[in-house]
């Protein structure tokens, strides 16, 4: 079912759409999901879309985005796509478990939920909701805070599909899982993917999440992800974003960490129109560790906004934030890093670092650390720099015959390398390395977007034969 | 090769060089000595093209060209090399990537194709031997975490890779123990040819026991106050810089 929604009262339209869907597309929901939806829409009714009067949205104005007309699909258009035939991903020398989300819906040759022999379940959230209600009752909506966030509430009200992964106790998923989120529609499109990833005690998962657009149409993505990382579990997570200038991508990711768990999450923005990444980490069990890393490369009119919130709720946890950005032309950025150390959270180690390179006078970054510390026996540090390339280093390189342009490239690339170097999947690191170098040389096109590289080298239009579906 | 006439240089309105004249011909080694803060590094940096300085007067020609008209990289690609007194650390840029870029930029400047990777790596190995670098230099970032001695050796290593026509070594000897000093001097001596020249800036006579200069100049208060052969260095060592202060015009 297609529904065209328009203009200034997107909020009103969404509430109306919710009512319609409750009777149709949402009618098969379990009681549990239904009650979550109802709470969520109520919350959205109160909060609405974020407005620039809210502190957290002061520097990112969605006004224009929310004025546009969008199409939304509340039922999949196509489900029977063999992603391996459609995309040939060259990221990995090793093969990945590849999952694609096409216009909001998980597609995979009709087999949208796969169980591996070790008990791991990977695939469509929509299917998993029906097949694994007990997992949903335990985890779904438990970590995503919708009380203070209208977009999260809206996502929760409408959530239908997205990535679901369940890794049972003690299981290591050997191959990295890769999800490619593709938007490929001729109309302006609004989609709200929802992901739930559960790692039981001692489980281990590597996940690469790519956001990608195939057409230069306006799109609005409001993505919410919840990660439950059980005791001693390990999650290695990457988000690679490479969207076109006319897209608005909002992702909100919640990590809930139990005792002795480790999370490394790395958000790499190669290109985007308006990008807002909210990353929220709750260190809920002692001796948990989180590395929260990111790199953003923006130019022209692009805007990238990163909000990181780390909640040290218990003692002996460590968090380490490192975000770096290169902003060219009139690009603008925001980094807001909030570290909360609760009274009980003694022996906390919390570090935050945000470094930015501005390549022109017109590029802007607002960087704001916000440390809120109630415990007394903690080590916290934060640092933020906004600067130009080091003139001493520039001179040194040039005295070796390296021209100004190449010298700038080397230094920018070196600046980015600190984050890239932390990518632990070698093949991914090499590919990202190459993409970043290309990006810095100004050679990254929409065609080698993300980590997808179609074998046929077909350009932007990338035809999926819809007649077969 | 290099001809400097009545060069006047100031920084932030403060006059540093006050009419300096110096000529360097192919095959020569010139030593420049002088107390701290007298303008030795300023001279080296101005030749290399650092833009911090205001040129108040005089001229500098190099291989018949007006040097001051050339960009930093043009000077380098025309064969000028500066060995830094304080080599800059560049985190994230590997030595290999740095030198390959430098070598290929130079080749491009002279209309040559990039050096094949195998040949480049062989060249790196060979030149490492010259300065007795044994460590896994290639994968390390430029000067990052290098000891003082390693940084200085690295300057000589780069010089060996780039094969300049005119190398200016700014206090490459300071902070080196005698063994490291010999290695550096030895590296320079092996690179000496009839068609290239060196300006060796040093604070101490010691280096000149190993790199035998053709000329020694004493820079003081922005001017070359004395020039002579290598024996001038010894005299200076003996009598100290106080001796100059008594003689030099203010
Ligand atoms: N970047 C700078 N800004 C201001 N003054 C400087 C700068 N660099 C050097 N100077 C001054 O210029 C003078 C000469 O310095 P320098 O050429 O480094 O001397 P030397 O190498 O002989 O010790 C000194 O008085 C020093 O303080
Ligand atoms: Mg000096």
Give a description of the structure:
The complex is a heterodimer of chains A (469) and B (250). Chain A has 469 residues and is an alpha/beta fold. Chain A has two domains: 2-285, no CATH class; 390-469, no CATH class. In chain A, 22% of the residues lie in helices and 37% in strands. Chain A has ten helices and 23 strands. Chain A has helices at residues 10-23, 31-47, 63-67, 83-86, 125-131, 133-139, 150-158, 391-398, 404-420, 426-440, and strands at 2-5, 70-73, 97-102, 105-107, 113-115, 121-124, 163-167, 177-183, 189-191, 194-199, 204-213, 219-229, 234-242, 247-257, 262-271, 274-283, 289-298, 303-312, 318-327, 332-341, 349-358, 364-373, 379-387. In chain A, the strands form three sheets. In chain A, strands 5, 6, 7, 9, 10, 12, 14, 16, 18, 20 and 22 form an eleven-stranded mixed beta sheet that branches. A ten-stranded mixed beta sheet of chain A has the order 4-3-8-11-13-15-17-19-21-23, with helices on one face. In chain A, strand 5 and strand 6 (121-124) form a beta hairpin. In chain A, helix 2 (31-47) packs antiparallel against helix 7 (150-158) and helix 9 (404-420) packs antiparallel against helix 10 (426-440). The longest helix of chain A has 17 residues, at 31-47. Chain A is globular and about 70 Å long. The two termini of chain A are 16 Å apart. With 250 residues, chain B is α/β, with parallel strands linked by helices. Chain B has one domain (2-247): P-loop containing nucleotide triphosphate hydrolases (Rossmann fold), CATH 3.40.50.300. Chain B contains eight helices and twelve strands. Chain B has helices spanning 40-48, 72-77, 95-109, 117-130, 148-162, 178-191, 231-239, 242-247; strands spanning 2-11, 14-24, 29-33, 54-62, 65-66, 80-83, 90-94, 141-142, 166-170, 197-202, 215-220, 223-228. In chain B, helix 5 (148-162) runs parallel beside helix 6 (178-191). Chain B starts with a strand and ends with a helix. The interface between A and B is medium-sized, with 23 and 31 residues. The site of magnesium ion (MG) has 5 residues of chain B, from helix 1.
